[in-house]
Design a protein that fits this description.
heterodimer; A: mainly alpha; two-stranded antiparallel sheet; 51% helix; B: mainly beta; Methylamine Dehydrogenase, Chain H; 4 helices; repeat (chain B); WD repeat (chain B); PP2A_PR55_CS (chain B); protein phosphatase regulator activity (chain B); WD40_repeat_dom_sf (chain B)
């Protein structure tokens, strides 16, 4: 049994502009005994960036959206846009690290600079997190699930007119959090597609903590799979990673992170997610690990799979989760995305997920 | 090609070697024009392409350089990626100009000699020699390719009739000898004219082979291969002023080599941390002092320069001087560190100053003052507001080089849209020029360009948003004693000269 991760692909010759409707095609891999896990296409904005690469396009084609919206911090902008920019840069950095599949060794200087950038952003987040020790997740069941979906894709404001969007919260949880059970996507395909148009109007703030419950169920799903099929290294890694995710996210108190949170400054958004997911994702040492040691020492040390959430709280590089996270990331078509998870539809999907798992287990 | 005797080479070299081009303030005798870049105007001498066909030409054939140049100047629209020039370097007299490209080839151009009937052709460079320096390799341990792209070429000073240069890719440095052969032995006893062995039974008389003149042939042979000393990618090589040693620098280590010994090198700098996860800084460039064979500098990705003295200890991890400019708090952004990463460091010819290039500026440092540079020149400050996009499309990691002119009065560096900039240190004037095919008429005077940063765009100005970021000038070179510059734009090599009178 194997888990195949599908990722979106956009037609390269149809570059996106921020006013266009988002059109995407899913590549289906058809095979028997292959089970699909859909990658949440929340990185559409960033994928547009990727399409813009190649150097032949004129600069203004892909800069008009983002640059115009981003105010340099030294101008004394609103905190929101600073956070948004920080988020954008964080995601771009992650994408750079993981999306690069060169035939030759990647440049060490570039890798180190990107890592430093990520470290710095995470340090900032850590500091901001420590400044706000308490947060009250007021449950505000704003709207139906589609609202939550609206949040996701236009994580980068360039897709929409400049409004204070919640920056993406789960930035600190790069890829694990973006996994959604297939059922969710099935249900909300339409809302997802059309949500872009509605997006600018209502910046409903998402709750990052909702990632935790989502992860929980998914990680439990993966766990089940892993139990049944312990041979595949990717599932092993996934399980190990989700183990860690589960461990820490449960600490975060999944219960309280129910509905979408009240609209607040984005910092608090980030802070909400931090306690839960910090240990897993923030040690950028893991990024360094991945990029440097992963290249230099291609073997994966399986002894590192027992992850202890307590030990990595220092934020320093812990080799444990990182390596397994890397596997997970690798198998997950490396788009670092805004993890967007609806909370309410999620609950009802738990049962659906169970159903799916049964199917998986059955075959 | 004109038949040149090696003796004449030697004489010419002697004459030029004595030129006082080391003096920082005096004007060297051979310098053709002492006006700074502001007053002078630059004309295009020639534009050279390096199409793939050149490598197919055998060295043995009679190479008509004029024919090759004409074919170069045709518009080759099918230039392959292997033709992208990756390094440009004049030799110590300026007579030869070497270029390396992504395909591992080295092409050496030679300056056209003065002739009475074609005075205007002086200053043109024609192909002198072409050879394949490095081949692509495969690292089986890491399952990664090792690019054959030539990262740097450095000439050795000429000590006999042959020319020597070092060329390096990511992993291996090679010493090449480029020599001319204009005589051929004829009259062998055991071989006939085609080289076939003769049957000894048919030989009835013996004769002494004589050397007869032949058409000039330039051959390049690899004399040394310095391999397997670098785990990381070599970014710089620098020949020491003792002409016996040189150093090669990769991201984390610098090794000192003796030209004669290829299986050993001394490690003189090692910044690899015990735990690679703690790595936050890499070496980006390194160079020996032009006169003091014990001194060298290396720059880092954090915008610092360290000067080291090899007499202090065998391993120069502890610097003698540390150059760093404190960060300007008003300019702080997410990208402060990345744009402070130094992409090139060059000693002045005098040895008193170093010049560093980071993403947006060129800085001149006095070796005696470590806390800040003495001069800072903005290369393309209008990009400061675009850093996020430049980060996204990786342009922020471009490594621009910078060069001094022969008298250390003007510095030059490249930018985007095929622009390159010159700064006159004395008059504080600067000029932006473009190396483009549209202005490619020979002897055409280059028009200064201007980038408008916003508001009304005047005629002939180009707005920041219409800059082409795929056309970047990373590699330039300045003749050691004259105002002749070589500018590499993708697969084109432009040679400009200061217009005299």
């Amino acid at each position: 049994m194997s888990i195949v991760i599908l990722c979106m692909s956009l037609t390269p010759h149809n570059p996106l502009h921020h006013n266009d409707e988002l059109i995407f095609h899913l590549n289906w891999v058809g095979a028997s005994h292959v089970h699909f896990v859909f990658l949440r296409p929340t990185m559409l904005p960033v994928i547009q960036f990727m399409l813009g690469k190649g150097g032949k396009r004129k600069f203004d084609e892909h800069e008009d959206g983002l640059e115009g919206k981003i105010v340099s911090p030294c101008d004394g902008p609103s905190k929101v846009s600073y956070t948004l920019q920080r988020q954008t840069i964080f995601n771009i950095s992650l994408m750079k690290l993981y999306n690069h599949r060169p035939l030759t060794e990647p440049s060490l200087q570039k890798t180190v600079l990107i890592n430093n950038m990520l470290r710095r952003i995470q340090e900032e987040l850590k500091q901001e997190g420590s400044l706000r020790p308490m947060f009250t997740p007021s449950s505000q069941p704003t709207t139906e699930p589609s609202d939550s979906y609206r949040e996701g894709p236009p994580a980068f404001s360039h897709l929409a007119p400049p409004s204070s969007h919640p920056c993406d919260l789960g930035s600190t949880t790069p890829l694990e959090a973006c996994l959604t059970p297939a059922s969710l996507l099935e249900d909300d395909d339409d809302t997802f597609c059309t949500s872009q148009a509605m997006q600018p109007t209502a910046p409903t703030k998402l709750s990052p903590p909702t990632l935790s419950p989502e992860k929980d169920s998914f990680s439990s799903a993966l766990d089940e799979i892993e139990e049944l099929c312990p041979t595949s290294t990717s599932t092993e890694a996934a399980a190990a990673a989700t183990d860690s995710v589960k461990g820490t996210s449960s600490e975060a108190g999944a219960q309280k992170l129910d509905g979408p949170q009240e609209s607040r400054a984005d910092d608090s958004k980030l802070m909400d997610s931090l306690p839960g997911n910090f240990e897993i994702t923030t040690s950028t040492g893991f990024l360094t690990d991945l990029t440097l040691d992963d290249i230099l020492f291609a073997d994966i040390d399986t002894s590192m799979y027992d992850f202890d959430p307590c030990t990595s709280s220092s934020g320093t590089a812990s080799k444990m989760a990182p390596v397994s996270a890397d596997d997970l990331l690798k198998t997950l078509a490396p788009y670092s995305s805004q993890p967007v998870a609806p909370s309410q539809p999620f609950k009802m999907d738990l049962t659906e997920l169970d159903h799916i798992m049964e199917v998986l287990v059955g075959s | 090609m004109v038949l040149q005797s090696s003796e004449r080479h030697y004489r010419d070299w002697d004459h030029r070697r004595l030129g006082p081009w080391c003096s920082p303030t005096g004007s060297p005798a051979p310098l053709s024009c002492e006006t700074g870049c502001g007053e002078g105007s630059w004309i295009l001498v020639c534009r050279l392409l390096v199409p793939t066909q050149v490598s197919l030409l055998s060295m043995e054939e009679d190479i008509d350089t004029r024919k090759i140049n004409n074919s170069f100047l045709r518009d080759h629209s099918y230039a392959t990626e292997a033709d992208i020039i990756s390094t440009v370097e004049f030799n110590h007299t300026g007579e030869l100009l070497a270029t390396g490209d992504k395909g591992g080839r080295v092409v050496i151009f030679q300056r056209e000699q003065e002739s009475k009937n074609q005075v205007h052709r002086r200053g043109e460079y024609n192909v002198y020699s072409t050879f394949q320096s490095h081949e692509p390799e495969f690292d089986y341990l890491k399952s990664l390719e090792i690019e054959e792209k030539i990262n740097k070429i450095r000439w050795l000073p000429q000590q006999n009739a042959a020319y020597f240069l070092l060329s390096t890719n990511d992993k291996t440095v090679k010493l090449w000898k480029v020599s001319e052969r204009d005589k051929r032995p004829e009259g062998y006893n055991l071989k006939d004219e085609e080289g076939r062995l003769r049957d000894p039974a048919t030989i009835t008389t013996l004769r002494v082979p004589v050397l007869r003149p032949m058409d000039l042939m330039v051959e390049a042979t690899p004399r040394r291969v310095f391999a397997n000393a670098h785990t990381y990618h070599i970014n710089s090589i620098s020949v020491n002023s003792d002409y016996e040693t040189y150093m090669s620098a990769d991201d984390l280590r610098i090794n000192l080599w003796n030209f004669e010994i290829t299986n050993q090198s001394f490690n003189i700098v090692d910044i690899k941390p015990a735990n690679m996860e703690e790595l936050t800084e890499v070496i980006t460039a390194a160079e020996f002092h032009p006169h003091h064979c014990n001194t060298f500098v290396y720059s880092s990705s954090k915008g610092t320069i360290r000067l080291c003295d090899m007499r202090a200890s065998a391993l120069c991890d502890r610097h003698t001087k540390f150059f760093e400019e404190p960060e300007d708090p008003s300019n702080r952004s997410f990208f402060s560190e990345i744009i402070s990463s130094i992409s090139d460091v060059k000693f002045s010819h005098s040895g008193r100053y170093i010049m560093t290039r980071d993403y947006l500026t060129v800085k001149v440092w006095d070796l005696n003052m470590e806390n800040r540079p003495i001069e800072t020149y903005q290369v393309h400050d209008y990009l400061r507001s675009k850093l996020c996009s430049l980060y996204e499309n990786d342009c922020i990691f471009d490594k621009f080089e910078c060069v001094w002119n022969g008298s250390d009065s003007v510095i030059m560096t490249g930018s985007y849209n095929n622009f390159f900039r010159m700064f006159d240190r004395n008059t504080k004037r600067d000029v932006t020029l473009e190396a483009s095919r549209e202005n490619s008429k020979p002897r055409a005077i280059l028009k200064p360009r201007k980038v408008c940063v916003g508001g009304k765009r005047r005629k002939d100005e180009i707005s920041v948003d219409s800059l082409d970021f795929s056309k970047k000038i990373l590699h330039t070179a300045w003749h050691p004693s004259e105002n002749i510059i070589a500018v590499a734009a993708t697969n084109n090599l432009y040679i400009f000269q200061d217009k005299v009178n």
